Amino acid sequence: MRPARPGRPPWRALLAWSTILVLWTIALLPAVARAEAPGAVPPDSPGDAVPYGGEPGSLTPRSLATVTLRAVPPEALDPSLDRSAAVGTVFYSRHPGREAPWLVFVHGIHEGPSYFQPMYGQAFQAGYNVAAVKLDPGADAVADGAILAEQLNRLSRMAQDRLVAIGHSMGGLDVAEATARYGSPAVAALVTLGTPWGGSPLADVDRALAGNPLTRIVPDLLGYGTPSDRWLTPATVQAEVAGLHPRLGYPIVSMVGEIRRPSLTMGIQVLAGLALLALLGYPRSDGVVPVEMQTYPYASPASVFVMPGVGHLDYRNFWNSPGTAGVPSVESILRGVLQVEPVASPR
Question: Can you name the residues that pair with 164 across neighbouring β-strands?
Fold first, then answer.
């Protein structure tokens, strides 16, 4: 991984943000719709209170989450659960009477568990037991890692097995924090989808805008003024990952998206990020994270898989990739690289 680039002139960052302000304001509307609403899904089991935020290295204020397990049919994992479920909820779908491997899906920032549809349902149909966690969508990885560690531990105890984690975006960093910083032994392997192992230069822009009295309101107006947005700077993340690495003792596979032909179907948010990263000197990206920053820095080439044409929000569509030449799928990685297959065929 190449090191983070030297800082750009402030005027260049401000010009870039001004250019895409209207587009990103439009892109904010889905993020507002996904914001957490009051109420919680009834749990299967009593909850465990987990404090998070305020840790050394975290920008997230101290708060409390309640970790609960909730069985749902695979098709019920939809955006309504993102809004109604309390932070700390673990949704799961299992095959009764079959000893199938467990996959746990970990969402990124400004997302919820439903990001992983249709992949969640497809994995279940393929014969895996599946789970998806609800984290704080605005917390940084240090804070969310504390919640996730307890979620993984509880799920692993119920499953009586270790888990294969699949993390989208910062979700991959959340898994690393949960296992290395907070000591969860529940993970057997990790597959990351567009995870910013080297941070994202967009976070540098966010911090620069927030630190200028004339522009400090811009990140909040755009919906990107959370601790997670500011925490993801290349300098912060690269130092954090270097400290976590000695305690990450399981296989890590990096799936790396790269937009080669921009399309309106990728979403305005991703296209705006693609343009801004190009202005900052990163022409190859998935619209949020540069290609070179999506790879676990200590990985062997055999555990890095480039996904040409895949934008940052598209990974969930690649459980399998029929008719998509040259694009690896999550299922092919699990079966072919990690050799994680269901013990029995699904009904």
Answer: 103, 189
Rounding to the nearest 10 degrees, give the CA dihedral for residues 300, 283, 280, 253: -20
Strand order across the beta sheet in which 63-71 lies: 48-52, 63-71, 89-93, 129-133, 102-106, 163-168, 187-193, 252-258, 304-308
Q: What distance in Å separates the CA atoms of residue 316 and residue 257, rounded to the nearest whole number?
A: 12
10-33 and 201-210 helices, crossing angle to 10° = 100
Query: What is the three-state SS of the chain?
Result: CCCCCCCCCHHHHHHHHHHHHHHHHHHHHHHHHCCCCCCCCCCCCCCEEEEECCCCCCCCCCEEEEEEEEECCHHHCCHHHHHHCCCCEEEEECCCCCCCCEEEEECCCCCCHHHHCCHHHHHHHCCCEEEEECCCCCCCHHHHHHHHHHHHHHHHHHHCCCEEEEEECHHHHHHHHHHHHCCCCCEEEEEEECCCCCCCHHHHHHHHHHCCCCCCCHHHHHCCCCHHHHHCCHHHHHHHHHHHHHHCCCCEEEEEEECCCCCHHHCHHHHHHHHHHHHCCCCCECCCCEHHHCCCCCCCHHHEEEEECCCCCCHHHCCCCCCCCCCCCHHHHHHHHCCCCCCCCCC
Token code pair at residue 92: 């799961």
Q: Which residues pair with 106 in a beta bridge?
A: 167
pTM of the model: 0.87
CA distance 332 to 136: 30
Q: Which residue has the tokens 């949960």?
A: 178
In the block, residue with structure tokens 């620069």: 208
* pLDDT for 347: 46
> Burial of 132 by CB count in 10 Å (0-12 exposed, 13-18 middle, 19+ buried)?
buried
Give the separation between CA 265 and CA 52, rounded to whole angstroms. Answer: 36
pLDDT in tens, 201-260: 999 999 999 888 888 888 777 778 899 999 999 999 999 999 999 999 999 999 999 999
